[in-house]
Structures are given as C-alpha cells and as structure tokens.
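$ ./design --mode recover --in tokens.txt
reading tokens...
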C-alpha cells in the first residue's frame, strides 16, 4: 500500500541550464519626477531666504538696510554686531538665554509626559465619558489664548509670581494638541493584544504604560517635544506681559533693541540670528535621532 500511495519525487537533471530569474519591474511613479524636485527646491529656498536676509543685514552696518545698491554677499560686521547685542546692558543676554533654555525645556518635558499619559488613557483605556472628554479637550484649542491673559495675570499677580519664570511655565505644562496628537498615534501604534498579554502577565495599568506605551510612543513624543520646545522658545506675547526687564526670556530681551528712538536693524537682526542658533543646533544634533525614530515607528506600524 505504501508503494502505491507514495508521491513521485521529480528528478532534476544537473545538465539542464538554470532558468534566469526575472528582475522585478520598477513600479511606475516610484521615483519622483522633476516637478517634485523643483517644488522641494522652491520650498527650500523660501525657507532659507529669511535666514540669509537676516545674515545679510546683520553682518552690515546701520545703512545696509536702506542701501538700494547693497551687495548680496554677507559683510564682515556680524561678530561686532553680535558683541554689541551680548554686551548691551538693557538686553541682559546671558540670563535671558538661560531663562529661555530652562522654561522651554521644562515646558517640553511636561507637555510630553502629560500628553503621553492622557493619550494612553484616551486611546487604550475604557472609561465612562472618555470620548466626550476627548472632544472637550480638543474643543479647547478653538479658544484664543488672548482671552485668558487678563485672568492669568490677575491670578499670578495675587500669587506674587509676576516677573518669575513660573508664570510662563505653569500655564503651559499641558497641551490640548499634545493630548490629541498622542491619542491618535497610540491608538494606531499599540495593538490591544499586546496590552492584554501584559495584563495576563500580571502587569498593572501604569506598568503596562511604562513597558508598552512609552517605547511605542517615542517617535511621536520626539516630534511633540521638538515642536513644543520651538513654540515655547519663540513665545513672546505672554512672557512680554508677565515678565519684567530684569528677568526676561530671550525674545522679550531682544525686543528691547527696538525701544530706542533710532533702531539699528543690523544689530536687531544680529540678535535674531543669535536667538536662532540654539534652535539650529538642536535640529542638527537631534535631527538624526528624530528621523530614525520616526522611520522606526513607521516600519513597526
């Protein structure tokens, strides 16, 4: 019976030539055309031009901005103008720089932490009123920030916090956009089966968040931290109101360069470039890790 039901094994003749493998055909449209490169080049030039214009004026003298026949090559006065900005006693450059670093770093870390916690709760925990609460959080983004300036100032004035960094850090510890961002990302990045497996192993809700949610949220958290840091660094309206000249952030301190009767725009734009250098260094050193984290999250997703 075994010889009757046995499956015949094909015999391969070693003298026969091997069939050549077909090369995969390239997918049409997989490589961008000239229009894509032209559009990207135009966007790149439009993004670089403000920095180049600031360098062009900031490296000249007080008459450069009004010179119709100015050279489009940077001058040699940038370091002198930068030294004038740093040495200006009204600007108080180094304390303002330190205040910006501290406030922006604390705000970015706090927003990432609380947004990841809230995003995990809205995305993966089931509780009564959760969807409506998320709608309420997102709806707060429609409220203009200017409406809360007067109540906030009265509150911090009664607390005696005006002129201190806590007055600009405390209101920015959470972000409705950050909560929505992390909720949408964690809802797609973390499968429910992984959470159930962690619970079967005896992990608590917070331990599941630390071991499952935090590693999965790193790409989105990195993006949120970067954008929050840049937004807090460039924030001018509220720090200008609640802080004083003795304890300003960098944008508020640089605005004092325009408080005189005669405004030297070469010095002003040199100060603008000085305030931009830390952000450029942040993108240079954190850009590679940021892009790798995003690509890793995209591949896993």
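writing sequence...
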């Amino acid at each position: 019976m075994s010889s009757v039901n046995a499956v015949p094994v094909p015999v391969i003749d070693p003298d026969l030539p091997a069939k050549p493998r077909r090369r995969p055909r390239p997918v049409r449209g997989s490589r961008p055309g000239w229009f894509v490169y032209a559009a990207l080049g135009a966007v790149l030039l439009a993004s670089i031009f403000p920095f180049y214009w600031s360098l062009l004026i900031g490296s000249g003298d007080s008459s450069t901005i009004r010179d119709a026949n100015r050279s489009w090559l940077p001058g040699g006065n940038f370091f002198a103008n930068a030294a004038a900005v740093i040495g200006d006693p009204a600007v108080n450059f180094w304390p303002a720089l330190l205040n910006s670093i501290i406030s922006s770093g604390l705000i970015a870390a706090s927003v990432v932490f609380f947004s990841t916690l809230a995003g995990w709760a809205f995305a993966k925990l089931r509780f009564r009123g959760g969807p409506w609460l998320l709608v309420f959080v997102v709806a707060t983004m429609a409220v203009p920030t200017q409406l809360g300036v007067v109540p906030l100032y009265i509150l911090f004035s009664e607390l005696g916090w005006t002129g201190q960094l806590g007055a600009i850090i405390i209101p920015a510890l959470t972000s409705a956009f950050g909560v929505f961002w992390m909720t949408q990302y964690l809802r797609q990045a973390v499968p429910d089966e992984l959470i159930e497996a962690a619970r079967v192993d005896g992990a608590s809700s917070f331990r599941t968040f630390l071991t499952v949610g935090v590693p999965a949220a790193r790409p989105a958290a990195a993006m949120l931290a970067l954008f929050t840091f840049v937004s807090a660094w460039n924030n001018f309206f509220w720090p200008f109101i609640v802080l004083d000249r003795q304890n300003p952030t960098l944008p508020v301190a640089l605005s004092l360069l325009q408080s005189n009767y005669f405004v030297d725009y070469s010095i002003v734009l040199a100060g603008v470039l000085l305030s931009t250098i830390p952000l450029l260094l942040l993108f240079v050193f954190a850009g590679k890790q940021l892009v790798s984290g995003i690509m890793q999250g995209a591949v896993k997703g």
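exit 0
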